[in-house]
Amino acid sequence: MPPILEARGLTKRFKNTQALAGLDLTAERGQVTAILGPNGAGKTTFIRMVATLLVPDEGSLTVAGIDAIREPARVRQAIGLAGQSAAVEGAMTGRENLELVGRLFGHGSRQAKASAQVVLELLGLTESGDRLVRTYSGGMRRKLDLGASLVGAPELLLLDEPTTGLDPRSRNDLWDAIRNLVAAGTDVLLTTQYLDEADQLAARIAIVDHGKVIAEGTPDELKSRAGIDVVQIHVTDPADIDRAIAALAPLGCDAPRVDRPTRSVAIPVEQGSTRLLEAVRTLDSLGLPVSDIGLRRATLDEVFLALTGRPAEDQPDPDAAGATSPRSRRGRRAA
Amino acid sequence: MTTTNPTVAVEPTRTLNLPRPTGHAGAVTTTLGIARRTVLRNVRTPQVFVLGMIQGAMFLLIFRYVFGGAITSGIRYVDFLVPGFVGTGVLFSGMTASTGAASDLEEGFFDRLRSLPVPRIAVVGGRVLADTILATMGLAVTIAVGFLVGFRTSAPITSLLAAVAVCVFAAFAFTWMFVLLGLIAGTPQAAQGLGLLVFPFTFVSSAFVPVESMPGWMQGFARNQPLTEVVNAVRAFSLDDKAQGVLGHAAGYFAVRAVLWCALFIVVFAPLAARRYQRG
Questions:
Q1: Between B46 and B139, where is the model more confident?
Q2: Do the Cβ atoms of B117 and A92 come within 8 Å?
Q3: What are phi and psi of B263, to 5 degrees?
Q4: What pTM value is reported for the model?
């Protein structure tokens, strides 16, 4: 069986921006593949190409073994798209929305009804299925939108930033729904700018920046591939924290990350164990007490920073990860 | 085929009871499905829908009772005005088609549809069908208000139906252009702005005042632009013999011209709208 998705050398130029600059990616069947990258990296352009909404300037793209550039109509039978904006109709009930999309996928009227019912049950929306969608919460709308892309039982589900702008609870809820789908045998390609989302859901992650895949692998592989470890300390006395930073910063290969409330300093380092010993000696010679010191592997967050030279956006700390993003309604076309 | 990420709990025993579709949605299913959704979207949002109708009725009352006294039209002004008003209503409901198409684009509804295996012209066709139905509903209200404020005619029912048919066909024809404008505008706000272009066509026409009362340089445009042809056809059909003296031609003459204009609109704007939709 050919891979569910194979992209080679995709390029796309909009007026002043090179949205894709030779993107290569292979997604295998039976798993979630995440495209991770900051705003403007080319994620949305790529997923719109897979959804046959955009034609690349150069390169080749096959979806479920079908040439997406030559036979977009056949690709449309194999995919389901849930975009950033929850394209469900507020003036119709959840069930009516699903039935409409089911008919458009090619179901007969009876099967469209049956599939709508299955999807409502799957997503836990049975009780609100006959309410108008404009009474739904943001999370329920997203779920229904996910459901609408499912009623045609596509081979590949395309999710463009599925949880952007959702609160943490709705996010977890949607993640569970996506996991259920994967367990039931649907392949998923999703874009996200949330590292924890990629980490939570995806078997493979492709990090995209400036229209190219700059790193690709399982979350574990990516965490070790960056070649960095992190020396992390917690100082005992908050007053010592600036001295500690000044003393340890020269050891790092990148700027230390400081979290004052927990009195912790994380220093990304190469040759981890050597640097850890140096850190211990340095702190000891200064007589600076620490409550904890250790060497750990980099988080995806730190890997991202090491690879791209900048943090992933909208990801200041895990608690705010699901908070409403001001960018959630940004221009869909150029992003 | 197996996932290596331990955080993804996979239970391969579960399967979805979702069959693959056996057929394709044809042009008819698609058109009707999208038309139904678009009509529901409007009818189930009565705030907007009813407001639009009230607005139309209000303008009719203003022309009838405020401006009407100052306008000489050769026949009773209310009889002159109501057919003109009914004819221009077609353009005003076109503006909602424009903002509607722009919202469909902005909200991502068209993205979803583009990713589905449906005939693309049918998507725009469904939108146009819905907007024609909505315009016809508005038309019914305008006609009712027209009779309420004193419009009277001796024209036979067949002629009146012909007048309505001209309006509905014109609504259908103009809507293709408005949908194209909406797709080009991209956002409802911009579409609304573009919609203001209808004002010169509505007012520089035979709808509210006789063209002869305008300055000479304006008459050429006013007399020959498409809305005037539609309005004249509606007026000639709905007033029957009363209109002969004012209009100078029989209803058939105007009807042919109006229908030709509408056909031209469809031939030009339907392919353009479909292409624009496809482009994204």
A1: B139
A2: no
A3: -60, -40
A4: 0.81
